[in-house]
Design goal:
alpha+beta; Aminopeptidase; 2 domains; 29% helix
């Protein structure tokens, strides 16, 4: 049986989501968002979605592209995932090699990839010249069976709103997202500076639920937000929780997350996921307070292309 690698086609969306969910059940993946992510990428990202096929069945997938807003030129990424029932066929290695060739042609000098922290996955990366860097955790909260802690008090001047309240003018949320994203621990820190691109790729993302996204304002100014991504059925994921610098240390992140999680549970969502850099102690502490438990760990690996 031969494994072949080719570019993603719109008709592959359901199979892509199936493989993505099986390999990484901690991430919300739907057919609708797969094609959207590719279509909304900027041309300078040289984004490609690759699939590995065996006898007509898609058994592995990979996202790859350049990091246009990185701290230096030539940074790129490739994240291959193989269905856990189809490992050992060489699909992951073939995807990675195809992606590296594409990235090298587009001027990439350094490639980053996320690898699950298991012996087999780490060996896969290290065998191909990738060295470990920082790590991050996936966390899960049982919304169906677990009880949330009591909601923190809402201080004077503080108001709870939803993302939908900003439908006519989401720029205040963009500005909050840009400021908090700049402070996120990362090997490839991002800079959000293009409002129109943010509207296309983030605000209009099919997984972003504006109604379940919670926003905390202080005296009318956006201070904190938690972006809710869902599969429209049972799975909820915190896409980003951020507090602007001037408002940190007041417990506003707990207030925003509590509001969003409470409304998500009332809407029928049963599984809540989030992700945190292993060095992001403040957010890890917030999530432990809610009852989140680490369910998997990833290790960022990096390789310089020769």
């Amino acid at each position: 049986m031969t494994v072949l690698v080719r570019d993603f086609l719109p008709t592959d969306a359901a199979a892509w989501a199936r493989v993505g969910h099986a390999a990484m059940p901690y991430i919300v993946t739907t057919p609708e968002q797969v094609a959207f992510d590719l279509a909304s990428a900027r041309s300078e990202e040289h984004r490609r979605l690759l699939v590995a096929e065996e006898d007509g069945e898609i058994i592995a997938i990979a996202r790859t592209g350049l990091v246009p807003d990185g701290p230096k030129p030539g940074l790129a990424f490739c994240d291959p995932y193989t269905h856990p029932d189809r490992t050992g066929r060489g699909a992951g290695g073939l995807l990675l090699r195809t992606a590296e060739e594409h990235l090298a042609m587009e001027g990439a000098r350094t490639v980053y990839t996320w690898v699950l922290d298991t012996p087999s996955n780490r060996a896969f990366a290290e065998k191909r010249g990738y060295a470990p860097s920082r790590s991050a955790h996936f966390l899960r909260l049982d919304l169906a069976g677990g009880a949330l802690p009591p909601r923190p008090a809402v201080p004077a001047g503080v108001e709870l709103r939803t993302g939908a309240d900003f439908a006519d003018d989401p720029r205040p949320l963009f500005e909050a997202d840009a400021e908090t994203t700049a402070d996120e621990p990362s090997d490839t820190p991002a800079e959000l500076s293009d409002y129109e691109h943010w509207l296309r790729q983030t605000w209009r993302h099919p997984a972003l639920d504006h109604e379940l996204t919670s926003v905390v304002t202080v005296d009318g100014e956006v201070a904190t937000f938690t972006a809710a991504r869902t599969d429209g059925r049972t799975r909820y994921m915190s896409g980003m929780t951020g507090t602007r610098r001037a408002y940190r240390g007041r417990g506003l992140a707990k207030l925003a997350k509590h509001d969003s999680l409470s409304r998500a549970r009332a809407a029928g969502y049963t599984d809540a996921y989030t992700g945190n850099d292993a060095d992001n102690a403040p957010m890890l502490a917030v999530n432990r307070w809610f009852g989140y438990e680490i369910c998997a760990t990833e290790v960022r690996h990096v390789r310089d292309l020769g």
